[in-house]
Write a structure and sequence with these properties.
By secondary structure, the chain is an alpha+beta fold. It has 6 helices and 5 strands; from the N terminus they run E-E-E-E-H-E-H-H-H-H-H. The chain has 2 domains: 53 residues, Thrombin, subunit H, CATH 2.40.10; 99 residues, Up-down Bundle (Methane Monooxygenase Hydroxylase, Chain G, domain 1), CATH 1.20.58. It is 59% helix and 18% strand.
Amino acid sequence: MTFQVGDKVIYPNHGLGIVERVEEKTILGTTCGFFHLRIVSNDTTVLVPVANVDNVGLRKAITDEEVERLFSLLGDGRIDNHQNWKGRFKDNSDKMRTGSIYDMADVLKSLTFLSKSKSLSFREKRMLDRARALIISEVSEVVREKALEIEQRVDRALEKCFMMKARNIARAAARAKIAKPVKASVIVARRTARAS
């Protein structure tokens, strides 16, 4: 993927950056092209080799239409949760490394949901804060709204998600209750049939 000067890009785990220039440098006798990115959140400069763009997950910022898709995903009631800390941490770390805002949304949902029932480890808390900050900063820049407004919108979407999840769990429990008496009556009927 190629970028032009002025493009808004996302550098995984660093957030939104702006391509300030593209230049060639010779390092140890090898000439390579580099993107100079200014990371918006902390005003630092990062050099990314042009040949390494795909490996580091550098991508263009999402569009207005993708923002709506993101909020639908945040509020859909589907939460992926591992019971095993090690597996959950590995999956979430892999998702954060992809740079995909949709993967970060999954991490945000699952860790926020988990934090409501138990305290997170230091590493998971840091990952949750990072996912939240990266999503808010990107969406804020794309829709040109203040971060506080986007944060409130994210919170509303997450609450909707958790309410839908709770409703789905309650429905599943109700269906299971209804199914149990039916199974018990079938077993009694079979035993009665065998006895006669």
